[in-house]
Amino acid sequence: MRKSLIAVPIGDPAGVGPEIVAKSIASKEVFDVADCIIVGDKTVMENAIKIVGADLEVHVIHEPEEGDFREGVLNLIDLGNVDMAEFEFGKVNGMCGKAAYEYIAKSIELANDGKVDAVATTPINKESLRAGEINFIGHTEIFGALTNTEDPLTMFETNGMRVFFLTRHVSLREMLDMITKERIKDYVKRCMEALKKLGVTDGTMAIAGLNPHSGEHGLFGWEEVNEITPAVEELQAEGYNVVGPIGADSVFHQAAIGRYNSVLSLYHDQGHIATKTLDFEKTIAITNGMPILRTSVDHGTAFDIAGKGIVSAVSMIEAILLAAKYAPNFTK
Q: Phi then psi for 23, rounded to 5 degrees?
């Protein structure tokens, strides 16, 4: 049986991305389920391999079919875009921001062309992107633009619990204005389509409540009464297997024990706190609604420990494992 072929851009070279890539490629867990194509800079990766003490040989390739997928070999598409004379670990650097973008863009190109089955991404730094004159705030926006996807969906998966987000990078004040019946209905329908594409066809989606005790029929807020409950009722009438609002203090636990196949979190921290408390290192982001599959670690560049060889690769390994798990559904 063919292993899934996963492109892995190394992220911001000044962060921990290259180190977690080296540790992941050296791991038996990854070797057993995936063939990986690393997109990065040869000098940066060779340096990272030394820092973490991995027993790896760098094999430079130009196309995925040139890969040597024996254990202990790191197959690298070398973009050669880091000048080590200007490089420093743990620092915002426009050169590194631009390089990180180019690694992502190349990985997306490979996936768009069907040369890899999925992309598993590593951390990038928003300030470095800006310093490198890259006009995207993060991975999701880059993937959306380069796959012609207007509004990609973010889903977290943690030990089998799946969480979607109705709103993400907006203030709490702005978030309240975005809790509308129409938006909820649109997101539920799109989330369910995304689940089908991942191969998840059974079970019920739960909508998290917004206010304490889901508002207690207006005692603690009217969003549930005016927007969330009507959305759920209309979706149910249309045949969608959805329930809610379920109090946010219990819905994530219920999903974690298998009562629901997914939860629609209403705002950024609501879902982030739930997933990362359950298992911080194994909280993996999956970008849905695109023609290609993308998984990602859900931690930052960790500039404070970059270059020290002490970063955990658990999240990167899990991101690659999830990419390999779901990739066959995208390549049927």
A: -65, -35
Q: Give the CATH number of domain 4-151+290-330; options: 2.40.30.170, 2.60.40.10, 3.40.718.10, 3.30.2130.10.
A: 3.40.718.10
CB-based contacts of 307, cutoff 8 Å, min separation 6: 19, 51, 89, 90
CB 203 within 8 A of CB 221: no
To the question of domain 155-275 being in CATH 3.40.718.10, the answer is yes
Residue pair 235/185 in contact by the 8 Å Cβ criterion: yes
In the chain, domain spans: 4-151+290-330, 155-275
At 7-55, the pLDDT tens digits run 999 999 999 999 999 999 999 999 999 999 999 999 999 999 999 999 9
How buried is residue 97: exposed, middle or buried, by Cβ count under 10 Å (0-12/13-18/19+)?
buried
Give the residue-averaged pLDDT of 104-127: 96
Distance CA 178, CA 190 (A): 17
* Contact predicate 140/126, CB 8 Å: no
Alpha-carbon gap, residue 223 to 211, rounded angstroms: 8
- Indicate if the alpha-carbon torsion angle 170, 154, 79, 47 is positive or negative: positive
Inform me whether the pLDDT recorded for 332 exceeds 60: no
Helix ranges, the chain (H): 17-25, 28-33, 42-52, 94-112, 126-131, 139-146, 172-178, 181-197, 223, 229-237, 251-256, 268-278, 314-330
Per residue in 148-177, pLDDT (tens digit) is: 998 888 899 998 899 999 998 889 999 999
